[in-house]
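[agent] plan:
  1. take the single chain provided in the ticket
  2. run structure prediction with default settings
  3. attach structure tokens to the ticket
  4. add a short note for the reviewer (M.T.)
[agent] executing step 1
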Amino acid sequence: MAGSLIRLFLVDGNPNGLRTVEISNMTIYATIFPRTKLSQFLDRKESTRPGCYILLGNSIEDPDKAIVYVGEGESVGARLKSHARGEKQKDFWDEAIVFTSKDDYITKTQIQYLESEIYRLLQQSERAELANNQIPSSPNLSEVDTAEMKQFLNAIRLILSSVGIDVLEPQRIESDTETIKRELIYRFSVNSAEAKMTIEEDKYIVLKGSTAVIQERPSAPPGITKLRESLVSSGALKENRNKNLYEFTDDYIFNSPSSAASAISGGSENGRIQWKYNGKSLNDMESRELA
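[agent] step 2 finished; step 3 output follows
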């Protein structure tokens, strides 16, 4: 993959305040800010431009559960203002990410397309609850406009990933055996459960067909219990009655080797010790690379 130059600007010098993000040689312009800085955003020229946006927050009932809303507007600031007060007010959000174009060369139809595609990616990623009451419709674009907006969408994904927001990136992915053959396969066994994991960039991927224990340990932390409940409710883990174990129905991405191992064992695990390749732990393998 070719390198990309991303420029992050802290408008007030505060990393938690209003920030702008640009990608070199692209027209995309992202503005990220907490809800408390909405009035500051409304004073900026980007707020009067057409654009799409994502609102981020957490559930009041379950603070660990992320909630996301995607929208668009010809004057994006007016739409955001309506979500902060009035009949269309949304209470859950505490951060907004707005995507506009530096040269104003983006149409209503194009931003509707982006809204629809972002919504589709949010559905597929299964990382957050969608707060949209209606599914955004996807307009018909010309071949040229479609190609251009796909580039814009890829830029949106790159920007979000670069600032640590992964809501568009899937946790469940289709198994690719050709890719897996070229990767190191780590293994972890516990109480008859056997799991395989590969690492791609910063992603720890437990492979389809791996098994996990059904009975959790009494000492399992609440976070592990919630993670396993989420895996079962989403269908990522399904009970295999023949083996009396859970089984992964797809490749599944975890944020760390320890969370992957803990989800499999039903208790706390040090994944850097438990995951092994040819008898060597993940920790040993990483230490070897640094030697």
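[agent] step 4 note for reviewer: The longest strand covers residues 93-101.
[agent] ticket updated
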